[in-house]
Amino acid sequence: MRSIFSRIFLSFWLAMALIAASAVGVTVAVAWARAEALEAFDPGALLRGASQAWREGGDTQLRQWLTGEARRADNIMVFVLDAQGRDMLGRTVPAQLHLDQASTKSPPPGAPSSGNATPGFMRRRDHMLLSSPLPGGQWRLVAGWPGATAFDVLGSYDVWIAMGLLALGVSGAMAWWLARQISHPVVALQASARRLAEGDLGARPEDWLMARRDELGSLAGEFTTMAQRLRQQLDSKDELLRDISHELRSPLTRLRVAAALARQNAGDLETHLARVERDIDRLDRIIGDTLRFSAMSTPGRQLDRQVVDLAELLGEAVDDARIEADQRRIALSLNAPDGVGMPCDPDLLRRAFDNVLRNAIRHSPAGEQIAVTLETGPDRLSISIADRGEGVPDEALERIFEAFYRVDKARGAQSGGAGLGLAITARITALHDGSVAAVNRPEGGLTIRFDFPHQWP
């Protein structure tokens, strides 16, 4: 996966490489231009031109000639200085071209021009390229580099300014690209989060963001998962409210009917009161189960854990269910080795087993058997409760652990169940870091299997 760190790291070094390459390019370009200017500079021709101008018109003509030469395009400055080192045009003379820096190897006034060939003394790194007295001895012709020479490019301010501008441009472009790589996905996620906050449960990050292979792509995936779970939870909440309303409405309706019948037929009052009592008990179970399920679903719920012997805990659950099983002529068997300890909340875990046992008893034919088995493994504990009832359709095996879900609503209402028992069981199991699943038995019936992590002492 390409991380944001790698993007920043590579972008940094790419910007450094581009800045270095640009700096080298500027330096080479300036040095090459100055070298060409140096090669094209003809000191003999310059000296003859100044001498001829002075002979033809004295200081006036020399000043005109110097005014034209002052606008040279090769960055070489030409001065005509008096004995005190002051320029004829009143310009400031760079320190490098003062008379005390004059080369002792200047060509003589009558030296012939060497064409475009540069004399040997100009191959040096001196700022002074030419320093020679003019006819009459009053003036001296001086030419040279005002700042850095052709061989000292980095000493020129314009080169540093150019390199600084290039560095600013390259780093700015790279920073803009990098900022866009990070901020654009963040803005897209922000827009999706805003839509989700406004109630659009279908808000999802765009495909291009999901396709990213860095931390922002992972964040988009997590956002999608969060949005899906939020939608599922809200849908479950709506379904839960509908189911609770339905479950509470049925016994309340029967209570009203019983009350009306009691008024009409006071002689059969005991029968009506018994019906009212049954419906009140049903309401109490529904409300109690709903409150317990809500308590089980509270985030961060802490368990009152203590190490208990699972064989004893399962034995207590089987004994509690045996009364109801005997009434239906159903045999309960327990196969659990002693001495298997597990840290758990015994009251909650016994309720989970009790819910499954009572559910198995209600849906098992008379004369059948329900087997409770505890199996141990290297790092797992498995508890299975198997009945010989009619089983569950395959498509409903996972949904039976949902709140208020019943395979047969009419049968569930007849048995007094509200569809919360197995949902509470699943929640209690999850609080103990375990899992619960249902499978149909090949020979008929249903097996509910609990799996818990276990570390042997």
UniProtKB/TrEMBL annotation:
Residues in the signal sequence: none
HAMP domain span: 180-235
Keywords on record: Kinase, Membrane, Phosphoprotein, Transferase, Transmembrane, Transmembrane helix, Two-component regulatory system
Entry's localization field: Membrane
Gene Ontology CC: plasma membrane
Catalytic activity reported: ATP + protein L-histidine = ADP + protein N-phospho-L-histidine
InterPro entries on file: HAMP_dom (IPR003660), HATPase_C_sf (IPR036890), HATPase_dom (IPR003594), His_kinase_dom (IPR005467), HisK_dim/P_dom (IPR003661), HisK_dim/P_sf (IPR036097), Sig_transdc_His_kin-like_C (IPR004358), TCS_sensor_his_kinase (IPR050428)
GO molecular function: phosphorelay sensor kinase activity
Enzyme Commission number: 2.7.13.3
Main localisation: membrane
Histidine kinase domain: residues covered: 243-456
The keyword Manganese appears for this protein: no
SUPFAM superfamilies: ATPase domain of HSP90 chaperone/DNA topoisomerase II/histidine kinase (SSF55874), HAMP domain-like (SSF158472), Homodimeric domain of signal transducing histidine kinase (SSF47384)
Name of the protein described by the UniProt record: histidine kinase
Lineage: Bacteria, Pseudomonadati, Pseudomonadota, Alphaproteobacteria, Sphingomonadales
